[in-house]
Fold these 3 entries.
Entry 1:
Amino acid sequence: MTQHPGFGPDLAEVFGPAAQDGGPELIQLLTPEGERVEHHDFRFDPGAGVDEAETIRGFYRDMVLTRRIDTEATALQRHGELGIWAQLLGQEAAQVGAGRALRPQDYVFPTYREHGVAWCRGLDPLKLLGLFRGVDQGSWDPAERNFGLYTIVIGAQTLHAVGYAMGVQRDGAVGTGEPDRDTAVVAHFGDGASSQGDVNEAFIFAASYNAPVVFFCQNNQWAISEPIERQTRIPLYQRALGFGFPGVRVDGNDVLATYAVTQAALQRAREGQGPTLIEAYTYRMGAHTTTDDPTRYRLSEDVERWKLRDPIARVQVYLKRNGLADEAFFAAVAQEADELGVHLREGCKAMPDPAPLSMFDHVYSELTDELTAQRDGYAAYLDTFEVSAGSTTEGAAR
């Protein structure tokens, strides 16, 4: 099999000891000051015949719109329109870089925070809001976008991803050399989830079966209120070596580096070279969710320091400094973000409440006798209440 940059046999050389604040092994192609730099193992390559500047402008647009989704959803929650929202402020580059590296046949298993990846897969963000509004349990078809439903159980999706990847192997969709057929699977999770048993079990199965899966860990340095140094004595990416597959740490605020590293790991998986762990070293500038108050457990100085590494600002500076985008471009993106905001606000408030009995519809592919009894019992209970126009809740639900 062809070796890809950063995934050669001399892992000790590529994945050396960690150092403070990301370490010298941190892969970076665009500095916080917006300057392009070279890396000996990875380079940004959007593909033959693809305009590089246009690709980077697309990354900028994706990140701006992803941030707008986040800020609008946060505001909707504050106004009582959403029950809760999982913020991603500061993690846009990690998600957009990873999302844009995918091919259509690749499959994504997200957590509850991959709003940027969902955007890259073409999912209407209103469908995400429906889940957090509580009017559905995830209304999108995972097969339509190859993007799984959000997973609330911490770390469970990594096992789902490995199982799917093993199925892809058995379907003969790995290592064929056919670009439109060979498939990789991505499991997204956070640094807190890396402490879960499910994640470590997924590592074991992936290594044992050489499964075509990329474990993408967004290390935003806080598992709710627990700092990363209380979860691990070594950098997270180095854990992969103990399971027998490579790990790599990338600057998660650098969309170019995240794209390049994810692209290489995905191709490695598609060719049958097995799993990779990517640690996207970033920072959660917002709260864990809208029920969280991060001022109670972290220093404001840290937040201010990471604001200087804003993933959107560094791409904007790069585009302006190199004459790759004019003010008309930035104004058009801002206008598109405003239109997206209107779409989210109006669409969220217009979502109908679900029929009470619809909660039983998608538990199993076929309704079991036990669940049927529960549904009928609940329907009988609802029928004890009067509703408008003299109809019954049972009739309205059915």
Entry 2:
Amino acid sequence: MMKNKTQKKAITNYSREIVPKAMSRVRADVMTWKQSLAIAESVESPKMYPYYNLLKDMMLDAHTYSQLQNRKRKTLSSNFLIKNKNGEVNDELTSTLQKSKVFNDIIGSILEAEFYGHSLIELSYDDSDKLITTLIPRQNVIPQKGQLVYDYNQDKSVDYRNANEYGIWLLEFMGSEPLGLLNKAIPHILFSRFAQSCWSELCEIYGIPPRVMHTNTQDPMALKRAEKMMMDMGAAAWFIIDDTEKFEFATTGMPASGDVYDGLIKLCRDNISLLISGAIIGQDTKFGSKGKEQSSQDVLQDLVDADQTMVEQYMNGKVLPALAMIGFMDADLSFEFEQADDLDELWQRTRDILPFKNIDNQWLIDKFGIQVTGERAASTGNNLSAFNQNLSADFFD
């Protein structure tokens, strides 16, 4: 199963050298996004921290986060197999690694590379001689240049791809796009936030309308008495205007129901769902149907299959060789996901062949959980026909 470490520990622990930074929480807009893109895509001196700080803030959006986690967990919850060079499954090692947090973290980092554009992880042994993984903050990594900065506000960097630890203790995973798929979701998140903010202001105004008092604002005693009256009446917004002035809410000719904001929020969320899940799943309750939901699930499964293929490539090409070099596991092992059977289709095929061939009882128990014993009895129709033939003519007399 596992081997004792034969490779000495890494010379440098890069993750411990990272300088922690407080992230700004000012309100972001489209201009903030475009500026961060310009800095990240700079040819001469790219900086990634403005973009990834913005993306970290965007992931506070509940809908985007849930869609991302739904897709990730379909792969993280799938069973995988560890095979030796002969193609035989190592059951003991497979069972151990499926329960291992290390493998869960590594697979998660590989999947996130597709969404964020890049993942750089560091393997190390802790004080209790237990293998752990650490994700290097993406704000501190400049993959275009192969540079790692301990303080992203400074220019001093390390060429991590030429370090002795690269490929052994440092493992790098790249997505299909430099800035990841989530870059396309940022404008939709920003507009969804804007619509929710405007809608909340509408609810505040029309839910608890502000109170207005007319008085002689030139009279200090009358103005003071009016202020006291408004303050004693409750916590709703209020204001005092002169008795010669008039106050009205501006109207657009449309009822103040919030439909325009609801439509914008739905449009943004639909686009986010299409980007991450490939379809709108479990959200359209007005026009939804079982057929549409099943089709959406099939589209999502196609994306999950592609994610699993990517994970297998990285695991067999980078991760397992590195784990063998540091002595965590044997060499010449391979990783693959266990292919799940379509039980509905398999059951239909089993029923179709049942009248012509015998089916192994244990296979039925293992595959479908049906407890079967003994031989298959004759059909009811044949038994009834034989029974009728044995009846005498005067049986019903």
Entry 3:
Amino acid sequence: MSWPAPSLEGVRVLDLTRLLPGPFASWQLAAMGADVLRVESPGLGDYARVMPPFVGEVSALYHVINRGKRSLVIDLKQDAGKQLLLDLVRRSDVVFEQFRPGVMDRLGLGYDVLKETKDDIILCSLTGYGQTGPLRHAAGHDMNYLALSGVLHMQGTAGGPPALGTPPTADLVGAWTAVVQILGALLRKGTTGKGAHLDVSMTDAAAAFAAPFLASWNATLADGDPAPERGLGLLNGGLAQYSVYATSDGGHLAVGALEPKFFARFAAVCGHPEWMEVPPLPVPAQAELRAAVAAVVATKTRDEWDAALDGVDCCVTVVRRPDELGAQAQLRERGLLRAAEHHGQAVHWIDTPVGPPLGGSAPMPGEHTDAVLLELGMEQAAIDALRSAGVVE
């Protein structure tokens, strides 16, 4: 594929976030050309680095979403550290933080202070529940945000409990929401010269992401019908024409043939044109059709189905394992397939499509401290003094 020009070239981002949501968002900004400077705390810094499994010296998760960034370590609890951050704010466009509400203020680095330092600064605050509301100070993780928003209740198979999925929906949808809001604020800044304080809630983002499905669930109740059973909706297991089936060798086939023309082609490959008598609607005959499709799919291995469906345009796909990414011609041709060595084997992932590929390794804590401070105009002796005082590492 051809990537867009780096639209954020010249934009400087101070990234105070850690773990997954914030760094995932700043990965997108870096891919679009922004100079992302990770500001980490003394010691371990972002402890996502040490979450197994590893690729080289850091975790696979950390390696993928932090390439193309720089790192310096500042102790923001020291006055000299706060002043150093404000010096960096003066030459930055965005400050991106992921603390609980009020932490930046307690550090003496709240939006009012940042705005006084640089009038057009954009502060993006990414949190679980947002800057307002009774839960604003509560701790939480992805599953908590999904539970509160109603999304978790809808996930899972019929007759089973709510099910967690991978990747974590609220974390990543929240990250993308932060990216969108930052881009909007940069656009507004370019036309008005004004900065902003962006309040991004992962719970809000997850609920908005699922908005049409939440509305459909509630509309069913409003019609006086019983509450919809989990796993029996049109797109989550309620239709035989849109479901996952086991093959004879433990593999799976994703049948997404909602449109009659596609299901007719699949039915023809299976030798059962009579399947077309059941419409793709939640009718009683769906259970019988599902059993019939399951029985036929179970007669072949995954690879046999792959061969049988080769060239048949019917929205039916073999379910690939994550370790098979490197064998997928479609992914290779799109140019997004990346790899790193781990114990002599290639570990594959798909790069973000928002900009040209980011090379190199993820930064170690404070890897660029001296270089960044020299860019600020500091003398090496002054940097050494800050390091001796524990202000930087």
